[in-house]
């Protein structure tokens, strides 16, 4: 007798659509329209394509130590604000109501934040590429407005969430770090316009740390403290670890930024020590979640595992930078490549692979029989393309960081090609998801067994 997997009945799929795709914390709250998070994830993937396309132009000067080259700055902001920033905001717009039980202040405000951010990133990239201070200033204004819109929509979670106040505090401090990074950027843009003179090297270091550690890592660990144990089936109590991680990292960010603004190297170094301890705690939390897991890794979770490895490597690289020559720009650049590409971007793509198929399936399957026939959200993404993507990203960031650290153009070029293959596999996979979700007029026969 043949055994055939039955697709879920329409009434069961309706119930699935009413359940959150993320862990619940504060009771049932209406989730935002599918278009809101989907637009953010789609834009993040498009910015990933842009950043990858900019890699050849950016890595050539970076290998030579030209960290202020316009192409380098354009590429970094494409990956940080375009890919990572858009994906984080999209995740929060889905997670705050669905995971923390706190409704968004306004869905329309979510769309406005999205538009403002995309215009801001595009203006910044154009301003860096053609080195136009006016365009950089316009991009800064749009980004400032976008952060304000997103903050107003999601930061109320810290005050109103029943069981998610720790996550809300993480997100609030992460947004504050992004705000500090924006003000530091304003000081640098003012210098480009000829309004004043600042120490570009120290401000660049603080700006990068606020983005990678303050906004990126704190957002990832804060939201990840609820999502990743759920994905991994890794129950446990991490509150003490999270409290220590949050406040040690926050202290490090404050000291590092204050030291950079006032050119106080001793204060910066004390802040750097706190940030290194925070990095070790980040690695510890990730290790705790993975070691407690009761579920085998699916293809999307391999991205999270790869990103965690990159985080550990980044902490090790940061220690080397700290104890050797903290002014070695090549080592700083390689460290940021590991953080931006290996840790944050790979993590974002992996989390997108968990959230977007699930949310799409439970929202659209009740109206589209061909999706119900798939039986599971994971069928929307091809596992082979997922594995190809994580392989390309994992090998790519290692080669990119190694090439920049050693100033070896050949290694860097191989890294560009490898990372590009990972990006191509990722874009093909999500194009497949989009095509599979289109309405179809072809009748889907009901599954039957014999």
TrEMBL record:
Q: Per UniProt, which keywords does this protein have?
A: Membrane, Transmembrane, Transmembrane helix
Q: Which domain of life is it from?
A: Bacteria
Query: Which organism is this protein's natural source?
Result: Gemmatimonas aurantiaca
Membrane spanning stretches: 38-59, 71-97, 109-131, 167-189, 201-221, 242-262, 268-291, 300-323, 329-352, 373-399, 405-428
The name this protein carries in UniProt is: Uncharacterized protein
